[in-house]
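Readers of this paper often ask what the protein records in our data store actually look like. The remainder of this section carries one protein's record, kept here as part of the documentation.

:::
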Amino acid sequence: MTTSEGVANCCGTAEREDEDTAGGRYDEDDDDDDDDFSAFAEGGLEGGDGVLGYNEGLSGEVKPRVLLMGLRRSGKSSIQKVVFHKMSPSETLFLESTNKICREDVSSSSFVSFQIWDFPGQIDFFDPTFDYEMIFRGTGALVFVIDSQDDYVEALSRLHLTVTRAYKVNRDINFEVFIHKVDGLSDDHKIQKQEDIRKRAGDDLADARLERIHLSFYLTSIYDHSIFEAFSKVVQKLIPQLPTLENLLNIFISNSGIEKAFLFDVVSKIYVATDSSPVDMPTYELCCDMIDVDVQGVLFTGVSAL
């Protein structure tokens, strides 16, 4: 059976070799401090449908917003291009620097519908002349990207400032931390990085008596499927129908004999929901590869279209 318009696929358990990864292949995005600041001050807010002024009203928007933040060169723009534009990781090396807040509507299916705002890393949007309350009001998720291959002391400081300011404005924001560019690191080193960042961020919140703020941490890379899985978890929290979808997939599993089921947005390869059994990366990676084949118009076995 074929799929269309971002409808989902379910697939059985299978194994696949991990993709080869190596460090040092990321783009140097967000590298013009003065241009970024002046562009923001002038009201530049670039979207796929044109350029919006910073002060334009947002009250009419109903889609949740996902803010993509972090220091410059952390890989934010590369993440957006790879996940939502099907750009190959190698092509991100040639991305131009981001000098405006880029807004994009993501509406590839009935369940995947939101706005993603990509912030240049060096913009001080907490400057008194900027209305940061407008930025965080109506935001569903704040994704903060930390470069694991760099000294992340400054990144943790910016993370703490961003999270605490955002929480004061909107306590319903989901705070997601992508520990990015982990390809090339050993498994033990990845875990050490994650635990160190988690502890430091947690200690900063505890010192500010804000232990109630919950941060979710993900190890990510654009050179494997980890970035798609991480964004899947982010998007799922924005879907109010998630419990119903998971229950339907559990029923599907129990009546079909399939070992694992995913509900995919085929455009972005984000999985909107899955059944209650644990997700293992080889199965998820195989399903992503099958989607790529199916989008090309080739039929494959072991996958059923919902």
